[in-house]
Amino acid sequence: MGILHALTLLSVLSASPQHYATLAAAPPGPSSHQVRSLRITVLSTMLADMTGVGEWGFAALVETDGRRLLFDTGARPETVLDNARQLGIDLSGVTDLVLSHHHGDHTGGLITLRRTLSTQNPHALARAHVGDGIFLSRPGPDGKENNPMIARRAEYQAAGGKFVVYRRPREIVPGVWLTGPVPRPHPERNWPHSARLQMPDGVVEDSIPEDASLVIDTPEGLVVISGCGHAGTINTVEFARKAVREAPVYALLGGLHLFRSSVEDMEWTAERLKGFGLAHLLAAHCTGIEALFRIRQRAGLSRKTAVVGAVGSSFSLKDGIDPLELAR
Questions:
Q1: Does the predicted model carry a pTM greater than 0.70?
Q2: C-alpha to C-alpha distance for 284 and 226, rounded to whole angstroms
Q3: When you count CB atoms within 10 A of the terminal residue's CB, does the N or C end of the chain come out lower?
């Protein structure tokens, strides 16, 4: 039912672009660019090493061929800002960010980051790339609004920020793609089943239809960054390969929302990832410890190539995963 509602939602939103500052809906064009230099550093997740603080949330700095993007903004207003400072990372020069979906553990730092960093650079985090549906109402059982992005949209725009909303995959910088909403041919129910979404014909289960991931095309294969993977890990990876390039999945990073999954679902996911040639897994946030080890074992990975993500841990094309000390 959630998938059908998601498809209906996309049809409704296609006729309602007035909700957004900018709507990126044109079909994607071919890209011949492949990223040669890539580094991804985790700035928010539950596990903290020698530096920074952990939280239930996710954020990562993505650096590609001299360009920089922030992927998600963590849960608490100050976490990403403080962790970046402790890691010696200056975010004031980052102009663009991606929000994978509306949940507060991925959007909580948005306003603080924009307001604080704009005092150093007026263009800092001034453009936010998001999937179609992120601003829809999510009514709670008490009638209160459960979508924090409705209020944050107004605050962010008041602070000089601009949203770019995607209905389909687009290359947002050379070699770096945002999936936009992901089709769901496989029944991966990676979302809280109690949440509700307001549709024109009534309230339905919220399958988080806006859930989007980042895909980086490299000579070694695709690198996929997921906030929570609510669209499903395999749905997302298959869509990435269709949208960008039928290439091996060289690395998968971020939250995969498998912590509540059955052993059977974990192993099904692992087998599919093995088939895609997965070489590196930096599993953070909501992936789950058991899921990480199931995937490591089933996909034929090792202690060096399948690691629990920690604040400050990183992945690069040159050196692979640096897990820091605690997760080594």
A1: yes
A2: 10
A3: N
